[in-house]
Amino acid sequence: MAARMSQNPPSLRPDLANARLSRDLDTAAPDRRAGQPTIGMVSLGCPKALVDSERILTRLRAEGYGISPDYDGADAVIVNTCGFLDSAKAESLDAIGEALNANGRVIVTGCLGAEPEYITGAHPKVLAVTGPHQYERVLDAVHAAVPPAPDPFIDLLPARGISLTPRHYSYLKISEGCNHKCKFCIIPDMRGRLQSRPMKAVLREAEKLVEAGVGELLVISQDTSAYGTDWADRPEKAPILGLARELGQLGAWVRMHYVYPYPHVRELVPMMAEGGVLPYLDIPFQHAHPDVLKRMARPAAAARTLDEIAAWRAACPDLTLRSTFIVGYPGETEAEFQTLLDWLDEAQLDRIGCFQYENVAGARSNALPDHVPAEVKQDRWERFMEKAQAISEAKLEAKVGTRLDVIVDLVEDDAATCRTKGDAPEIDGHLYIDEGHEGLTPGQIVTVEVDEAGEYDLWGRLVG
């Protein structure tokens, strides 16, 4: 049996993603032609890295390469790595080692590629190492390892390009890099300063995706609110507002991720109330105590943030707020942690995630004094998640008896797995329909009445 490729994260397994991809390609070219070179892809890390993998595969497919979902069927394998945390680096090295053992011909790219000596020190037999979003260098490495042999009369590319997500939703990356200098983060060192894509290029890609059947666009970047602020000549002070207005006219769900709470977010929320953009904000608050935020080198106005949240909800009552936090940051006292828990009680965020602080090679936070012991970090994480779970459970219980529009992700014999406007794929909860779901199809948007709630998920029945 052919060895399948590494799996990270579990819900975006490259083997399953490539199997979907192969089905897409098979509709254009039912049989792999004789002599066609084939490439495998292992895509690790965040959705931004997944978009990079899609772009690389789209370019390769346009040059006539086939895409293999397993190691044995590939002439070479690209491993797109994550390098944000030491644990992610270790996982990337494991994936590279697995690919080398199973295939032997491996090209490494992605965030960990910014540290080539780190990779080659562990795996000297890799064919090449390139950094993040270095598409041309990746292609050059593939050409050197597996020369292209295109046949323009046979090799056809799907209209939406190569996608590693289900056909009905797609990530839309609008910029690279970040201008923030958070002490715990090395993203600016790996991916550079903010570089926004031209708005015309973003809109053109979005239009093509919608034309190809995509029903949900997930807008991503490292700092979505800052989109376009790096342009010397920009049409408005906050170009994300203009982009959101244009995207909202395409007829698809538009979901905003990684939105820093700049003042101009107040102008984005009314668009959500009007229906042009989904009423969903993914905002990385990270903590609530001003001293912890200062040690993080982040804005430290937690009280004013509560006022902002109240103003957003007044403008858009259906707004869903999601955020992630770090507990056990160096120097965090029990009183500072308690402030975070108290802040959560007031903020009542809808979707809450949490990470235990972890040193990252090259991060300035490593040098801070008073690192929190592992057992204390674990205890605080458990207490935080207990609070988050209680908030989530109460908020979902309040939805019982209401009617919601949901998008169908998966239809199986026992139920259809769906998402509400307040749930992003892979990171939030689900709504399940377990009766009368047999005729539903992925990507379909239907109305349901919620009849049961759990800690993170809902159950409902079709209306009409």
UniProtKB/TrEMBL annotation:
Its EC number is 2.8.4.4. Coiled coil: none annotated. It is found in: Cytoplasm. Transmembrane segments: none annotated. Keywords: 4Fe-4S, Cytoplasm, Iron, Iron-sulfur, Metal-binding, Ribonucleoprotein, Ribosomal protein, S-adenosyl-L-methionine, Transferase. Residues 164-394 form the Radical SAM core domain. The keyword S-adenosyl-L-methionine applies. PROSITE patterns: MTTASE_N, RADICAL_SAM, TRAM. SMART domains: Elp3 (SM00729). CDD domains: Radical_SAM. It comes from Palleronia abyssalis. One of its GO terms (molecular function) is metal ion binding. [4Fe-4S] cluster 2 binds at residues 178, 182, 185. Catalyzes the methylthiolation of an aspartic acid residue of ribosomal protein uS12. The keyword Lipoprotein does not apply. Belongs to the methylthiotransferase family. RimO subfamily. HAMAP family: MTTase_RimO. GO terms for cellular component: cytosol; ribosome. This is Ribosomal protein uS12 methylthiotransferase RimO. It is an enzyme of class 2 (transferase).
